[in-house]
């Protein structure tokens, strides 16, 4: 049993949980090393307190599961099998009585939960999610090296995107050029749909790129991330195309000041709320508080959004090994949007910034 599985088993002992059934690809990957996208099919890892765990996957994925390094039992099922019944039988074959089981309630849909409830009518189901979030929140060196590579590629992608800015190019043309350059470098997956937004479009924090053309006097906002060996990066940079107005400049400088202050405040022992409020106060005092409608940042790793959540009310103490984004923004509807986003890891006495593309206002000629 690896160290991560041992930690889960210890939690199960403390909480008298007989079996944990992990079913999200992210948590199965974290615990088993097998990174699988099963689509609508069942993927599950059954973890016990003292028995060896077993993996359940579509039969066609068995060879990939073995190649991933998983050396435990694998139960493969075909498209005409009933995987949950097979899980019940495999637990029964171990002679284990189950009174309490932990499942991923947020990931599990109602249909699956009904099947499980019928198969295990006497069982009390509790949530495994919170424990898994806490386990995943502190990254080890192997995870950090993957995230570092993902951040280096994210920096390269921003550099490529900025070089692609030309009068009349559409947002989607720039997206295509960025992703083409990454594919040539061997990148297979983005953390989320690459975002390039220009002008007033950038005032939508999660806007979708389209056929809008970049024009002089506008900001161009890039938000993108790269997946390396299952780990994500997530960077945002905003640059000016040609000369911009004093108002645009003031918005940019306010976001930058807020971002730099929050980065500087990130260290072990600070709370998530303090970091958020460091940036939020600067933006509010500049008169833009109402135009910063989201939390300061989020953890990232296997998922692009995971723990910790940097909100203005989260009392969580930052600890060495936590990886998260700091991404304040100001979005003035119909006018402009600016966001600056870095990825950081908390170190023994501060924070290391993993994304390094320059943040001073860049004016693309
Ligand atoms: N790209 C989504 C985010 O920055 O959270
Ligand atoms: Mn982002
Ligand atoms: Mn983000």
TrEMBL record:
It comes from the Bacteria. SUPFAM superfamilies: Creatinase/aminopeptidase, Creatinase/prolidase N-terminal domain. It holds the Pfam family Creatinase_N. Residues 4-138 form the Creatinase N-terminal domain. Residues 146-348 form the Peptidase M24 domain. InterPro entries: Creatin/AminoP/Spt16_N, Creatinase/aminopeptidase-like, Creatinase_N, Pept_M24, Pept_M24_MAP, Peptidase_M24B, Peptidase_M24B_aminopep-P_CS. Its cofactor is Mn(2+). The keyword Transmembrane does not apply. One of its GO terms (molecular function) is metal ion binding. The keyword tRNA-binding does not apply. Keywords: Hydrolase, Manganese, Metal-binding. Belongs to the peptidase M24B family. PANTHER family: AMINOPEPTIDASE (PTHR46112), DIPEPTIDASE YKVY-RELATED (PTHR46112:SF10). This is Peptidase M24 family protein. The lineage of its organism: Bacteria, Bacillati, Bacillota, Bacilli, Bacillales.
